[in-house]
Amino acid sequence: MSFLIAEVIVDVSTYHVDRPFDYEVPTEWAHVIEMGCRVKVPFGPRNVLGFVVGLKNETDVPSNKIKSIAQILDIEPVLTEEMLLMAKWLKNETICYEIDALQVMLPSALRAKYEKIITLQTEKDVLPDEVNAIFGKRQQVNFKEFERAELLPLLKQLITDKMVKIENVVKQQGNVKEIRMVKITDHQQDIDKAMEDAARAAKQRQLIEWMGKHLGEVLLPQKIYEETGASSTVLQSVIEKGAAHFIQEEVYRDPFTKEVSRTQSLQLTEEQHIALKAITGSMEEQTAKTFLLHGVTGSGKTEIYLQAIQKVLDEGKEAIMLVPEISLTPQMTERFRSRFGEMVAVMHSGLSVGEKYDEWRKIQQGKVSVVVGARSAIFAPFTNLGLIILDEEHESTYKQEDSPRYHARDVAIWRSEFYKCPVILGSATPALESFARAKKGVYGLLSLKQRALHQALPTVFIADMREELQKGNRSMFSEQLVDAIRVRLEKNEQMVMFLNRRGYSSFVLCRDCGTVVQCPNCDISLTYHRTTEKLKCHYCGYDERVPQICPQCQSEHIRYFGTGTQKVEEEIYKLFPEARVLRMDVDTTKQKGAHEEILQAFGEGQADILLGTQMIAKGLDFPNITLVGVLSADTSLHLPDYRAAERTFQLLTQVSGRAGRHDKHGEVIIQSYTPEHYAIELAKIQDYEPFYEREMFLRRRSSYPPYYYVALVQISHEDVMMAAEYAGRAADWLKGNLSERVAIIGPTTASISRLQNRYRYQCLIKYKIEPNLIPVLQRLLAMYRAEWIKQGILMTVDLDPSTI
Ligand SMILES: Nc1ncnc2c1ncn2[C@@H]1O[C@H](COP(=O)(O)OP(=O)(O)OP(=O)(O)O)[C@@H](O)[C@H]1O
Ligand SMILES: [Zn+2]
Ligand SMILES: [Zn+2]
């Protein structure tokens, strides 16, 4: 097939441009071009990246107006037809630009990257010396060089005088890494002939003889030197004589660091068996069914995933296994690698851009059939999907917080409908929405009520920290927890100490006047960083030295308040000098592989206590852990978010589930200042359904999801009056265009009312059924993109906000 015209979505995120443009296909590419290829096209004064989304032979654009594609970047498409369809769906579903939807499906190495290039437009002798020094003998230099030399004002002048020009140039990324290998000839004749030619060169003859025993093999040159003792000159001569030749092989940067031993399928328990059968049954029927696998911690959900994937592989299909970034631990990925070996690609944020690209290529080229990865792995370019799994489906990290604001669960269900394959949503503490859908029969509900080896769930105690204070205990450990730790140390058993950092800040407080040091740009308190002795804003990056005296009242009693893992570690050593502690937090896991090393050390029994934050709440499966201590259960309870109780319950259940997973019984001690709160009381009895009932009752009473849907419109401006004014306009417009059944709350100030020097307002839309919602929001966005944006307003629309 050959085509004359391509429809191209260009990499320009503006409203007027959010549609395909027609371009002429140069004749020499008419047979090459395919849908899903990336191209470079002229757009306005420059070239930009674009995606071919359609091919045809006619266009309405007059022939003197149509422009030609400047360059084809891919011979083989990087986006499949399924993805082009999916982008159209995402565009509507999340109200984003189509270009954003297309880009999110690709590894960052393939996304557009532009470089500013300065080109000389005049003779050199008229230029100032310092500019000449930058250009040297070149005609083009990178903008960065001017930036570094601090010559930007001068550059600006040169551009105005038309002595140089500045352009955005699309930089092609995603280099395939190749390596030189030696391929030994397939034919004995070549060996015999080379032997003859080598005549009396003994070393060459030796090597040729060795090659005769390894016909057809492909080896690294180094390997040949090691095996035979030959030098590189000898190898070179032998190659000239035709006994072997050099080839370039594509290699993948291998993110795996160590070998794993293979494991076999386990004999399933009765409950596991029933669940697996339901899933494989729907595979056989080729239906796009979604299952909610609700299984208590340690019930063997992962084993079900593994066996379901095995079935998919047996049928020659492919599987996507999503896990939250934070639980993408080496222990987790190892379980998949040890079952499926080289068939597995792994994708997470710890990989370099090149490594991610290589994993992606393995999938695209059909070298692997399983991907284990975080949120974006849902876009893995498989073409014959047989199963999609979301483990810990309740996790909020499955929702992307910037455009396109998609939820991986929705994408999973869309793809499953495309491939007619099942989706498994797994969790010990499902999102309320999911459990409600399962109860209504929208999802198939599969339950595992028992732990895999029939171990009891751990016993949970609540330590009331208010009572501790009254008793005069000012430390961060309750008496009960101290006793429990002592017993474990004596018995040589292991412990996990969990510090709930969600919603927690370590701030600096004046004990005389109560001043908390705040960010000058944002209305939130600055976080104390011990290593640098600085206060830092987590939203805008602002930092300053820790003040010695209070900026308000000049008191010297200003100091750090709150608890970090380091502080807890010190406290543990004070109480138990003999304890061996491993700390796992952002500070100790900065280096690549650190995560892995800490867990390995703990697994080998090199420490008694694993101390950490959210990072250790999930996925850990160590037999010797018999005690879990939660130092601060309440911190996440008081966030201004309707899901605060749900999140706290989930976190407490997850972390408690790390104890007593094998033969030894587990115990959990949860420390709290509000032990009567239902999220904490119900976490104690470790039963999901009572919590579900209670929370559903409250959600219904205050009209929150899952009874209602919510959508959030946020508006910000540097000027508080402007922000309020336009938020008001948005609210009025929504009220005028949506039906009476919809509740519009606001405008109100956002929970963080100022961020990076911008004032923030929001409108919350609550609705049950509102067919008009998407078109109305699209029109609101159109208004914003056409007019409001010029006034400095920024507006976002989120149809499924994870916090409000
Ligand atoms: N059928 C089985 N027979 C024997 N052991 C099993 C079986 N299924 C699972 N296990 C073991 O039980 C332990 C817990 O299983 P697994 O980690 O799969 O549970 P999970 O439900 O995924 O846990 P969590 O959600 O708490 O992380 C593991 O050590 C696993 O190897
Ligand atoms: Zn003060
Ligand atoms: Zn700030």
UniProtKB/TrEMBL annotation:
<feature type="domain" description="Helicase C-terminal">
    <location>
        <begin position="545"/>
        <end position="699"/>
    </location>
</feature>
<dbReference type="InterPro" id="IPR042115">
    <property type="entry name" value="PriA_3primeBD_sf"/>
</dbReference>
<keyword id="KW-0547">Nucleotide-binding</keyword>
<keyword id="KW-0413">Isomerase</keyword>
<comment type="similarity">
    <text>Belongs to the helicase family. PriA subfamily.</text>
</comment>
<keyword id="KW-0862">Zinc</keyword>
<dbReference type="Pfam" id="PF00270">
    <property type="entry name" value="DEAD"/>
</dbReference>
<keyword id="KW-0347">Helicase</keyword>
<protein>
    <recommendedName>
        <fullName>Replication restart protein PriA</fullName>
        <ecNumber>5.6.2.4</ecNumber>
    </recommendedName>
</protein>
<comment type="subunit">
    <text>Component of the replication restart primosome.</text>
</comment>
<dbReference type="Pfam" id="PF17764">
    <property type="entry name" value="PriA_3primeBD"/>
</dbReference>
<feature type="domain" description="Helicase ATP-binding">
    <location>
        <begin position="282"/>
        <end position="448"/>
    </location>
</feature>
<dbReference type="Pfam" id="PF18319">
    <property type="entry name" value="Zn_ribbon_PriA"/>
</dbReference>
<dbReference type="InterPro" id="IPR041222">
    <property type="entry name" value="PriA_3primeBD"/>
</dbReference>
<dbReference type="InterPro" id="IPR027417">
    <property type="entry name" value="P-loop_NTPase"/>
</dbReference>
<dbReference type="InterPro" id="IPR001650">
    <property type="entry name" value="Helicase_C-like"/>
</dbReference>
<dbReference type="Pfam" id="PF18074">
    <property type="entry name" value="PriA_C"/>
</dbReference>
<comment type="function">
    <text>Initiates the restart of stalled replication forks, which reloads the replicative helicase on sites other than the origin of replication. Recognizes and binds to abandoned replication forks and remodels them to uncover a helicase loading site. Promotes assembly of the primosome at these replication forks.</text>
</comment>
<keyword id="KW-0479">Metal-binding</keyword>
<dbReference type="InterPro" id="IPR011545">
    <property type="entry name" value="DEAD/DEAH_box_helicase_dom"/>
</dbReference>
<keyword id="KW-0067">ATP-binding</keyword>
<dbReference type="InterPro" id="IPR014001">
    <property type="entry name" value="Helicase_ATP-bd"/>
</dbReference>
<dbReference type="GO" id="GO:0016787">
    <property type="term" value="F:hydrolase activity"/>
</dbReference>
<dbReference type="Pfam" id="PF00271">
    <property type="entry name" value="Helicase_C"/>
</dbReference>
<feature type="binding site">
    <location>
        <position position="550"/>
    </location>
    <ligand>
        <name>Zn(2+) 1</name>
    </ligand>
</feature>
<feature type="binding site">
    <location>
        <position position="510"/>
    </location>
    <ligand>
        <name>Zn(2+) 1</name>
    </ligand>
</feature>
<feature type="binding site">
    <location>
        <position position="537"/>
    </location>
    <ligand>
        <name>Zn(2+) 2</name>
    </ligand>
</feature>
<keyword id="KW-0235">DNA replication</keyword>
<keyword id="KW-0378">Hydrolase</keyword>
<keyword id="KW-0238">DNA-binding</keyword>
<dbReference type="InterPro" id="IPR040498">
    <property type="entry name" value="PriA_CRR"/>
</dbReference>
<feature type="binding site">
    <location>
        <position position="553"/>
    </location>
    <ligand>
        <name>Zn(2+) 1</name>
    </ligand>
</feature>
<dbReference type="InterPro" id="IPR041236">
    <property type="entry name" value="PriA_C"/>
</dbReference>
<feature type="binding site">
    <location>
        <position position="519"/>
    </location>
    <ligand>
        <name>Zn(2+) 2</name>
    </ligand>
</feature>
<feature type="binding site">
    <location>
        <position position="522"/>
    </location>
    <ligand>
        <name>Zn(2+) 2</name>
    </ligand>
</feature>
<feature type="binding site">
    <location>
        <position position="540"/>
    </location>
    <ligand>
        <name>Zn(2+) 2</name>
    </ligand>
</feature>
<keyword id="KW-0639">Primosome</keyword>
<dbReference type="InterPro" id="IPR005259">
    <property type="entry name" value="PriA"/>
</dbReference>
<feature type="binding site">
    <location>
        <position position="513"/>
    </location>
    <ligand>
        <name>Zn(2+) 1</name>
    </ligand>
</feature>
